[in-house]
Amino acid sequence: MAKDYYEILGVPRDASPDEIKKRYRELVMKYHPDLHKNDPEAAKRMAEINEAYEVLSNPEKRAQYDRFGSVGAQGAPGGSAGFDFSDFGFGGGGDFFDLDEILRNFGFGGFGGARRATYESREEANRPTRGEDIEVPLTVTLKEAVLGTKKDITITRKEVCPTCKGTGVEPGAGYMTCPTCKGSGVIRKVQRSIFGEFVVQSTCPTCHGTGRVPKAKCHTCGGTGIVTETKTVEVKIPAGVDTGTRVRVKGQGNAGLHGGPRGDLYVRIKVAEDPVFRREGDKLYYTAHITFPDAVLGTTVQIPLIEGGYETLRIPPGTQNGMEFRIPGRGAYIIGSRRRGDLIVKIQVDIPTNPSQEEVLLIEKLKEIYDSKKNNRM
Ligand SMILES: [Zn+2]
Ligand SMILES: [Zn+2]
Asked: Which ligand is nearest to the CA of 224?
């Protein structure tokens, strides 16, 4: 028997749990290192007391200790379900120290929790994770935006490594026990507190809690399970997109991890300026230039359509500069529907800037008529 825990606590072998608790409390008050700051022996003594109490306060451990003179897992208070300082009721008053703070810092009540956390991270290490989305810019013509199109878009994205199928392990190499944590998936660290030494558990950084590591990393991906590939994806750009529209292509983003789904590909649209048409929402605008006589007498104009071809528009006599005519259903598609906006034709009456002699003569004649009309009215 290495240490006599009963002797350390100074209780008889048949002491009741209450006696042990009471005695422990007395000892904490007596040997508390805060009261013996210059005495390293006090801290050592306190550590011993803690160790003894930890075993004797736990019925299972105490029985084991009574029978074998030791307890299986050394030192770690992990598993001591009954080890709860708050039972003692000191600390709340702040007489010596903030007990809660210490318990928090050292993960008390969290030892069971530490195991749970490990279990969770074990799952997390292999949990299917959705791949990230990718966003790429794409400039389209106004015609493509208004009527829809298909585009081949070349992207660089993460792929599941074809050699190791994403495991990161060289095929056939297999796994071995993690050398860092010896397969437990957790790292135990001893921390000192005023109560002595405590063991804090954390997830093993080498194996991320899985307890095993590949014997050899995949030569293709270097163990990441992921490679980058350049891929050309055909993207359907729906009719009616505009600058700022994000077209989602489901499942064409980065590959997921551990069998998780792919992310999505987003194509961010920019619509290039068009030399002929201007767009406002689902409306397209076209400016038709007509002459002064046509405006006066009326005419017909061939209006180009964005999908190609022309539509004949009748300009009535007396059409004013800036007047608008509507050609229904020849504008931009309304995204997600089969309806189209209108094509608005705006009339621009061109004033001759460099008239011929003959034109000048005729216009002077016209001016005389206008002037006489004006004088008659006055
Ligand atoms: Zn690989
Ligand atoms: Zn490990």
From this structure: 1
